[in-house]
Batch of 3 targets.
Target 1
Amino acid sequence: MIVLKSPREIGIMRRAGGILADVMDRLREIVKPGISTLEIDEEVEGFIAGRGAQPAFKGYRGFPATVCISINDEVVHGIPSAHRRVKEGDIVGLDLGCVVDGYYADCAFTLPAGEISPDAQRLLQVTQESLERAIAECQADRRLSDVSHAVQAHVEASGFSVVRAFVGHGIGRALHEEPQVPNFGEPGRGPQLTPGMVLAIEPMVTMGSWEVKILDDGWTAVTRDGSLAAHFEHTVAVTEHGPEVLTRR
Ligand code: MG
């Protein structure tokens, strides 16, 4: 069942999303070659606590940290570590959520560390564009798979691949609610989008094949062929006036 949110509930989620938008600004300052992924995680945990919110991922199904940090061929769910340092030329995926008064917001973005290759730059740009195109589909007269199709069409036309194993999701009083929001599919299918739906849309895009595997830590998903992967995510409310991105100021 898809749970619709009232304007009051969306207001709370907007506060949670605003905190994440501020975290992203902070991360743009600190994610540089030399910092460890654990240092990034500790910084974000402190930031979220300082704003009176709770991290959404820490303890979720046993995940040990506040931020999923996934570098280069890691797609999602990388675990922060004191032994892992960001290197010049890395692309660093950062996925995080927070909870305010029982309501969740979820976002992700992939940052360049120092100078990255033109190919990597293009991967980040196309992934971000595919998210923007998906957000633009979050209108009351569209269907859910129009959102999915917008991602796939843009990514594949650009010569990249869409990961199938992980999908976006509804969000609200739980981090993961119905419906699932795949990043692929034919348009015009699935439930009609309705004001009050809130979706976490999160394209995961690779330079090579879309196939992934999970490392021995039980969490980190990497591309099977070792190609680079990027991940961007926003929490988006469908309103009568069109999409509202709750994780953007
Ligand atoms: Mg998510």
Target 2
Amino acid sequence: MFTHAIVRPPAANLTQALTTSSPLGVPDPALAARQHQAYVEALTRCAMEVHRLEPAADFPDGPFVEDTALLTPRGAVITRPGAPSRRDEAALNRPAIEGYFDEVFAIEAPGTLDAGDVMMVGDHYYVGLSERTNAEGARQLGAILARWGYAASTVPLADGLHLKSSVSYLEHGHLLITEALAGQPAFALFTQVIVPEEETYAANTLWVNETLLVAEGFPRTLARLRDAMALPIITLGMGEFEKVDGGLSCLSLRFRPTRSA
Ligand code: CIR
């Protein structure tokens, strides 16, 4: 169970965020702010206490806080984001994280790691090797996780921005996964719910305390999820964030603090 989330609402500079999805158009910051507000309300409905950071004037990708830290039940890891324009977001978010965790480690150069590439399955962490996360970043993360008794393994990625752009852990041994990643041996022992090719964006969902947040507008994925599992589902409009490759998981850090207030 998670008890807390950290989020950062978007600013007007969301229009400058990194994207591989430019055919979808430029995001409307006012609509993005409303979609973000609905997201925060959904987290609150899932019994989360939400810590809102200030919109970041210097970081167009600032709302995608997930990439800047991996928060585990035993400690926090500050990442070193792979995109140079995002690197200093990690330092920006660090003080808020330090308020909740006793043990905080960091990925160092030449390692790079975006936590959107890290999927937690109980005590095992899958780390995607992507354009943002390199082998050295994954190695450092594995060494930090081992201190806390966790295991880690890497997954090579041929496409998609991050590992969790293509796969979500739904708990209870279930994965929601794209057709492209479904054959990956690392995921062979899971029950797989396959995302149809034309709905790939919907692969990024967010499990929060036995409720699943799913992007609105992907009916085939939704039907497959409902057939496969009995989890309550909340659908959320994500269109403005999709335009800059952001998904549901990217918009928050979820955790249970190890430090008492
Ligand atoms: C980026 O390219 O870094 C942002 N525009 C989107 C980040 C999405 N984050 C995530 O999937 N965890």
Target 3
Amino acid sequence: MIKVDLTNIQSFLRLPYEAALSPRLRIAHSHLQQGDGLGGEFTGWVHLPQDYDRQEYDRIKAAARRIQSDSQALVVIGIGGSYLGARGVIDCLCSPNYNLKKKATPNVYFAGNGLAADALQEILELVEDEDFSVNVISKSGTTTEPAVAFRFFRAALEKKYGKEGARTRIYATTDKHRGALKSLADAEGWETFVVPDNVGGRYSVLTAVGLLPIAVAGVDVDALLRGAAQMMDRCAEASYDCPAWRYAAIRYELYRSGRSVELLACYDPAFRFMLEWWKQLYGESEGKDDKGLFPASVEFTADLHSMGQYIQEGKRLMFETVVRLGASQSRLAVPMDAGDGDGLNFLAGTDLDVIRERATEGTLLAHTEGGVPNIIVEADGKTPEGLGQLIYFFEYACGLSGYLLDVNPFDQPGVEAYKKNMFALLGKPGYEERKAELEARLKG
Ligand code: PA5
């Protein structure tokens, strides 16, 4: 089970905070459990690991098996919460080089998460000579980036398999009733999966949004959900024994004491997209009403050679949360070299995990001495169950954190601003006035 180690924080906090924060955490916890706080209509994820639609879950697994049998590639089209979780889990459990590996499962490509023509063209070319399927994911069903990408991949499927053939290769994950994608899917007869009404995009990785692509990549989704359910039971406890309480409380206290940036760090490049997932989760949930920690991420040890300098000696505005995933699967001992030209024979025979462990400890001490408080999140292992626990842990702590800040952790009103401007500048009907105003501003 996940542990939150606060040993390297104590010297930074003057007052004991646990007792003082406890009543507020109790209220936040009750809001999450009862769904009666700000944005309470989006707390379906709280009980989701046990309370999910079993029939739909069976359909997800059946669809994954079908894709595995008839496709060499799956193109997952979605942005933000509609792709980061799946990408994070697949990278973490199957490898960031998953698509390059020899394997029995299809490649998984992620498209529609931006507007770069080259990125889109590349994936179109990669699947051109392959049998492929498409999972288009959008809760609202109206998000521009995935909708644009889907036009291209739908056309590619129809060109290759004809309209009828394409129909059996398109899987739409969207709202149960509303949105352009839902209407299109119903009209065209594509298989659909539901993003439940009470689960927002960034909390949706354990719904069909994440589970279908993750299952296609061969990850044991039963174990992923089992891990989440274990953490859900743990988080049902209203006490500091719950790791999510400890994490939410300490980061709130550090924020109150003047820290404005949280750096999430991991010593495994496979965790990179889980870091991205976490950034969206916390950034969109907390960053509003002029409040919130800025969520940033670093991938160690690579970033010790780029961001390490700033973390050690730059402006003292941050704290670090280090996720420790546990032992690697590979056992690699440094080879002996008779010449010892690089002077590394003192490490000969040492397992790489041991070297990484010393690097982790050395960095922790250096950063703490440099004035950067360090929280350690000890995961239960780089396994589906361990990752399921970690996902739920971060989600629950995020909900608690939002309520401690007195913000709605489940909306994202600020995301609309760029969309309105983009639509106006692109000449979308209904935006004429705004278009004229923006064009005048751009001309200066
Ligand atoms: O957390 C959220 O709700 C957002 O970040 C969405 O996930 C993102 O904007 C994509 O939205 P949609 O799934 O409606 O296309």
